[in-house]
Each structure stands twice: as C-alpha cells, then as structure tokens.
Amino acid sequence: MLKFVTALIALLVTAVAYAEPLLPNPDFTEGNGGPTGWKLTGGEGRWVDRQFVEVTGAGKDANEWRCEASFQPGKLYHFQMRARRPGGSGLAVSGPSFANRDFSSIPGEWRWFDFVCRAPDHVASGYVRVGQWQTTGTTQFDAVRLVPALAVHRTAGGLLLGEGESILGGQYRFSGTFAHQGSNYHRTLVRSNAWFNSDRWCFGDGNEVVYRFGLPGHRFLSGEVKFSVNYHTGGGCVAEISRDGQKWHALATQETVGDAGAQMPTEVLPTESFLLRLRAVKASNFQVNRIEFQGHLSDPPTDATGETVYADLESTSPQVSIESMTLGDGDRSGRTTVTMVVKNSSPEAAKVSLMVSLQSPGKEPVDLPAEKTDIPAGKSAPLAVSIPVHQPGEHRVALSLSAGSGEPLRASLAFSVPDYYRTDYGELLSGGTGDLAVWWCDATRKVPRTRPAPAKTSKLVQIAAACNDWEGFQIVVRPDRPLKGLTARPGPIVLRKSDRPAVRGILNTISAENVRVLRVYYHFVDHPTDRTGIRDWWPDALPPLNEPIDVAAGVNQPLWIVVYVPDIAKPGEYEGEVVLEAEGWSATVPIRLKVWGFSLPERNHLATAFGFSPGEAFRYHQVRTEEDKRKLLDLYFQSFAEHRISPYDPTPLDPIRVKFVSDASPPRAEVDFSAFDPAMARAVEQYRFTHFRLHLDAMGGGTFHERYEPKIGDYGEATPQYQAMFSSYAKQLDGHLKEKGWLDMAYVYWFDEPDPKDYGFVRSGMERIKRHAPGIQTMLTEEPNDALAGPVDIWCPVTPNYDHEPAEKRRAEGDRFWWYVCTGPKAPYCTLFIDHPATELRVWHWQTWQRKIVGTLVWQSNYWTSSAAFPDKPQNPYEDPMGYVSGYSTPRGTKRFWGNGDGRFIYPPLAAAVPGASGSGPVLEPPVSSIRWEMLREGVEDYEFLHLLREKLDARRSALSPEQIRQYEALLEVPASITSDMTTFTTDSAPIYERRAAIAAAIEQLQK
C-alpha cells in the first residue's frame, strides 16, 4: 500500500485570488539601500548583492530579518525558504511570528526548508522572519515564501485519518507531536490561541488548544489522555474533556516539567466524540510538546494509519472552488487517488473539467486523462483522479480546474513517496505456488509488511563474498492464506565440481553451521523519528528462527539468511539451498555464492567504539551469579566480534583497580592489573577487538549539561597530594599498557560534548593526562578548535559538525578523526534509526572513508529502556522501538524522544524482552541481532575492502603503468552514485554492491 508523507503546500478554498505574493520582495531583488519590505532587528546582518540576506551570530546573540504580513485567523499557511550556512553552527529561526521553527542542520550549499502551520484564532496580522539564535558564523536566506494552505487527509477503511492518527487492534491512537510537516496542526485540532515554537505549544495566561476526537460509526468505550510539559517557569496546564463544549470534566493538571494524564471519566462514556482542552491557569509560562489519546473502539475497524499532505494554490476562479480534498488508499499497482469536492459557484449549471499534469522523479511532466463532471448551479460534486506513483521520491502534480471560459483554478500538489515503499527491487522465485509467493532480495533492504511481491523473476539467489566475510540476503514468504508452522533449513554450500582444486586440504564446502537463519521482526513505529520516518510497521530485530512460526495472510515474512565464508575457503562458485516447510507446503530456494580469492583481515583497520551496558544485559537476562554473568558477556562479546565492533569496555568484570595512598611519602597510587591483563589478552586474541576506552579515576568529567571537578578522596586538583597520586597512577597506566602492546588501543574519553563554557576545564584535564601519561590517546566528542587543540589526539565530532578543511589542518599536526551518530543527526543525514533506509548505516562508512576518518563511535548498543520514561517497569524494546531520553534533568516518568532505535542495535532474546516475563531464572541466550547491527558490519567490511585495495595497490605500484595506477586509484574514490555529500546519498543498495564487486575484482587482479 502506498502512503505519502511530506507535502509541499496546500490548497486554500477562498474567493480571493492570490495573484500577488503574500510577502513583499520574497527574492530580495528590490530595494535601495536595503531589501524593500524587510528590516533587520539589530545585530550583524547584510543584504548581499541584491540577491539574498544574511545574519551573523557570535554564539550568544539573536537577530533576524522581518517583514509584515496579514493572516486569516485559524487558517493554515505554508512557509518555505532557501538557506545555507558557509560556516559555523547553531539555530536558524524562521516562519510567522506566531509559529516559529528552528532549523539546526543548515548545510554549506543552498537547500530548501519548509513547514506548514496554523494561525491562532485571534491573529490577523504579524510578521514573518528569517534569522539566527545563538549561532556562530553566518547564515544566508533567499526565496522566502508564504502560501495559504488546506490540509488533505487520507481515507482508510471509510474513515478519515490524519497525521498522528492510527487504528491498531481495535484501539484508536492519536500521537500529537509537532516536529512533522504540519507543525502545530492536526486533523483533530478545533481551535487554538496559543503560540508555537518548532515542536511545542507555548502557553501563557488565557491560552488554550482544543481537539475533537471521533470516528463515525464507532464509539469510544474507554480511553486515556496524556500530555507532556517540556518547559515550565510558572502556572499550570489543565486538561479537560467535554461532550458538548459546555460542560467540562477535569482530567489532570501539570504544574512542573513532566508528563500527566488520566483515564476518561465514566460519565462521558461511551461516546461517539468528545473535546479535549488544554489550557493555562494562574500566572502561566510553559510549553507542551506531546498530546496523546488512546481509546478502545466499539465495532473495531480494520488497522489503518493516517496521513496528512498539503497542496499549493496558484490562482482561484470565480466560477469554481474546492471545498475539500482527500487521499485514498493506494493499491498494489502503485496508484493513489486524490478526490476533491468541487463547488460550482456560478448561477448556472457547469461542466467542470480537471486537467492534471504529473512530474515523477527524474522524468518529464506527463498529462493525465482529464476528469469531467456536470455540477448544478450552487451545488458541489466530487472529482477524483488516479495518480500513478511507481517509484520513491518527490512527485509533483499540477491541477487546473475550470468551468466554461472563465479563468481556471490552478493548484499544485507535491508529495514524496517514502523510500520505504519502493517496489523496484527483489526477484520472485519459482518455489512459490498460486496462493503463496516466495521472493528474495539483498540484505540492504527493509521490506514493508504489505509490499506486493516483485514482478521480476529469478531461479536462484545470487550473492558474493570474500573469505572471512559475512554476506546476507532475505527470503520473503508472502502467503495469500494463513501459513502455519513455517521453518527454514539450510544445507551446506558446496564448491562446483569445475572449480574444485586437485590439492587436498583446501575447503570445498561451507558447512550448514556457517549459515544462519533469522526471522525479521516488525516493530510498530508510533512516533516517527523525523520526516524520513513514517508511522507503520518497520523491520529491525532478527531473532533466530529456532521454532516454527505462523505467517498471516497478505503480509510479508522475510527470513534473514547470513553466510560466513571461512578464511580457508577456495575461491570460486558455490551452490546450496534453503528448504522452506510449513503445514501442507514446502519449497526449495537455490543459492549461488561467488567467493572472491582474498580474505578480509582478522582485525579492522577502522577503529570502532560502541557503548555497551553489562548491567542492562544482566537485568534483562536476570543473571545474578559471577559465573552466569561471564557466560552472558561471552555471548554478547561474540556478537560484537562477529560484527567487527569493539565495545567501550571489553573487561567490565575485570577492571584495572587502583588504590590511592595519600599518607605515603610521597603520595602514590597502587595499580592492580592482575584481573585486567588476562581479560584484556582474551579480548584481543579471541575477539580481535581493536580499541578500548581507558577509564581514568579522579579526572572529573561531565557533559555540556553538567560537570564535576577532579578529586581524589578529600584532595582537589590544586593540592600537591592530588597531583602526586594522579601522576603516579597515570604513569603506571602508560608504562604497563606500552609493555603489553595495548597502548595504541587505549583512548581516554572522559568528557562528552563540551560547550565553549567547558573548554577551559576540558583543556586543563587533557593537559594533565598528557603531562603524566603522554602515550595515552585522548579522545573528545567535539569538532576541532583552537581553544582545545594540542592535547587532543582524536577529534570525534557528530557527523554534521565535521568540517574537512580544518580537519586537514589538524591532521597535518598529527591529530586523527573519528566521528559519531546518535539521536542526532536526523534527516537528511545518514542516521542510525529504525525508521530510515537500511543503506544509511552502510553509506555512513563510505562517507567515513571518503573523508579520511579512521574511527566510528556510537554511545550505546543495548539501550533497551529509559530510567526517566520507565522508572518502575522496564521498557519492552520489541513492542516500543523508541529510544527515550534519560538524564539531562528529565523528570521521572517523562517520555522525551531521542529517536526509534537510538542506542539500540542488539536486543535481548525474546524470552528476556521483559525481565521476569518468562520466569525468575536466568536466560542464558545470545543477544538478538538487528538489521542495523548487520548493516554496521557490512559498512565496516566495505571500509576494509577499500583499505585492502589501497594496500595491494601500494605494494604493486612500482610494477604498474600510470594508466593502471589511475584506474585503481579511481576505485578508491567513493562514487557519487553512493554518496556525493553528507546529505546526498543512495537509498538503493545496487550502487554499493556494484562498487564492492569492482573493488573485489581489482584486489584479485593486484594479487596475481
């Protein structure tokens, strides 16, 4: 089923023709001494070359360009602009005075930004702004537009559902968050007089917002309302409900930061509809960033997910107007229906004609067949047009509605088909039957549950891998009838006879033990992470298929097959099969594997540093004894090793122990490596980990949010006792790690994401380390700057903050660069989120190679629950994919979103999804992989392919011609088909596989 998310603008039904733009001088080309109609509100700014405007921030200031504008109370408006930031960081502010939106990820090249918002019911005039708030550097703006807008919602099962609405298992759910395209608007919103900023309502005295919930033909039998106050300096937020808008029933009051909510009172139940009001009381100043309602419905409708898009009005007509527009469900042929209710405003009957032009991604506009209908004078009638949308990306629809010879109403609708719903991959296999399709696709895909089977056919699965390499693919089973007891059994993968060597001892068979069968688990994403994400079932966890499963009719069930090619495998073509069985059905899927004639290294050249919480694993698995903890850690570290990921701490039960002796003369540290040494040796020799985070006691530390000072016992940093003990401690660490050969593996990561206010503190700490342990590497999650340069060995900025030019200057001084992703960045960058394309984590590693970055970091890998969001009962990471905020002064019980899957790449086994759910005993099973965990491995392997090619080329360079060298060096460049810049990259895996095969062929040629 096709669904649409982003919309570029909306239709307004009005008798006024908008021939003139709503904003003066929107392109900043007019003026004498300054852009006509626009004023700078202080601070530093310029009108540049009569083309665009800019503002420059110093880090703690704010200013903006403004123009006056008129609005219609309660109406929707679409705002858009182009912006770029040649340098610096911080927030660009934009939009109408009543509904600002901040944008943080402004690239160096011009890019469009836009959003839709609703004017408060009392606002008829105001201003529109573009500017900066506490930025460093310059931000530039151009092409500022404001257009009246009308929301267009989706029909599903005869019900109209908009953004944030869904029906799942007989429960209606409304998730009112505000970072989406429509900002403060939802279909359910009735009225408001509150202001809005970026992703939250802003309440002062007398402000309120009112929502109406109801679905025709169904009654709410029960329900619960929740809301979240994310900022508060005074007053309180009261939630009330009413059937008629006259008699209100109090539900909950929140007078501080945090969540509140209550069940619907029995006196209003059951009800077909009701109003929910949030209002400010007392001397109020607070913000609300989430409003939720969940209600149990009578006569449960089918599951459905709502959506809201928008369209642009270019002109209106005195003869016809559009009263409403809706989107219908797309069918499996790749079409959706846009239906509009058209009113004939003329005094005579009219033949109304709708002309439609469609421009699909990368194609020229195509005129669709005209739709016509007769409408009596003063009456309304529906007009529907079927829109073909066969590929992902932005589709533009131009609409021209006319009656007779008068001027037509012209509108345009632009929407994006999410990459998640693309249907241009996969091949249908011959093992299916009439009512059961079996198809396959590569591993770098996320298959929607309801995607139709592909039309392209194939007789077998074809994959390729090097030795000491893992390669995955997916077999997708899609029955039209319920399928009971599905199993999959892999066989050995055998070298074809024609490729077998005559010499004995060379491996001709990849045993079935090297083939793993996992099942793809779907999670319902109720709160999309950003514009890329959509509310739907998303695949991620990969529990083993160790028992039969049932598959419902009409849905896909992918099986994830991953093959490990041993280091001693003979190159050539291998053949094998996977046997699928279920009640009354079986099929055999042939596999062909090409093994390239080289091996990937045992240990990465790319550094990896991923957080891992043993305590969280012990909690969910309910292991309590030392023996069980060690067994469980072995299972987790085996998964890390197989995925080429090094955890922060590979010896959590065997740390380096230190005792500070303050009364010695001089004061000293007694460092005990007796437990650490054998554990670390095992981490290096068995698991092939490449790096580890070295914990330094007494350093102090913290984050931009808060920090704590260095101290040993009662002795602060300024005391001679502290200095002597810390020096003794650091020198012993430096010397011992050097003696063991582990010094290059160790990095000290003791402060996280400092603000400029922290720079002096951080620099002092880094210099203290270098003074006493010059061989220990220091790492800082920050982009390079002069205030910190010198004692920092490894800079590790978040990916959008990496700037290649200053990085090259620091490399010339011997510094190295890692980088990281976490809750940020979000779209349009490569991210780690569940509700993003599978390619992103893989492309991230190509971007890593492209920028000479030598390490990747992620803060956590098993962040299964939030102590703030779930203070009493831990989260089930299978049922709730969201990563919620912990710490950072988040109140107990408050759910703030970091993003779906943030900090969570591995899962507890299903038996341990909720601690204690399967009994009180320990669950000694391996962790469950995920699609994103697999993509991390694929990305690291891609990096190692490139590194190996460079090694082979350097070794043979003197024997090659200039043309050969040029051809091989070209393969070391990352092609634009994979990624051209940080926000332009493929969501199709085909270019990655093509380039990987070309690199493999080059490696084979160079080692002949």
Question: How many β-strand runs?
Answer: 63
- Residue ranges: pLDDT <50 for 5 or more in a row? 1-20
The overall average pLDDT, rounded, is 93
Form type: globular
The separation of the N and C termini measures 50 Å
Task: Please describe what this structure looks like.
With 1008 residues, the chain is mainly beta. The protein has 10 helices and 63 strands. It has a 19-stranded mixed beta sheet that branches.
Key structural traits:
1008 residues, mainly beta, 10-stranded mixed beta sheet, 14% helix, globular, disordered N terminus
Entry summary:
The protein has 1008 residues and is mainly beta.
Write the layout of secondary structure elements.
Layout lengths: L38 E2 L3 E5 L3 E7 L3 E9 L5 E21 L2 E5 L7 E8 L6 E25 L1 E6 L2 E3 L3 E4 L2 E6 L12 E4 L2 E3 L2 E5 L3 E7 L5 E23 L6 E6 L3 E6 L9 E25 L6 E2 L2 E8 L4 E8 L7 E10 L5 E10 L6 E10 L4 E9 L4 E11 L5 E9 L9 E2 L7 E7 L18 E7 L1 E11 L3 E8 L2 E3 L13 E2 L4 E5 L2 E4 L10 E4 L1 E2 L6 E3 L5 E9 L6 E11 L2 E15 L7 E4 L3 H8 L4 H17 L14 E5 L6 E5 L3 H10 L6 E2 L7 E3 L3 E2 L2 E2 L2 E2 L3 H21 L5 E3 L2 E2 L6 H14 L4 E4 L13 E2 L8 H8 L4 E5 L18 H12 L4 E4 L23 E3 L12 E4 L28 E2 H26 L5 H10 L7 E3 L2 E2 L4 H17 L2
Parallel strand pairs: 6-14, 9-23, 32-44, 45-58, 48-53, 49-54, 53-55, 55-56, 56-57, 57-58
Antiparallel strand pairs: 1-4, 2-3, 3-8, 4-8, 5-6, 5-7, 5-8, 9-10, 9-22, 11-12, 11-21, 12-20, 13-16, 14-15, 15-20, 16-20, 17-18, 17-19, 17-20, 22-29, 23-24, 24-27, 25-26, 25-28, 28-29, 30-31, 31-33, 33-42, 34-41, 34-43, 35-36, 35-43, 37-42, 38-39, 40-61, 43-44, 46-47, 49-50, 51-52, 59-60, ...
Helix pairs in contact: 7-8, 8-9, 8-10
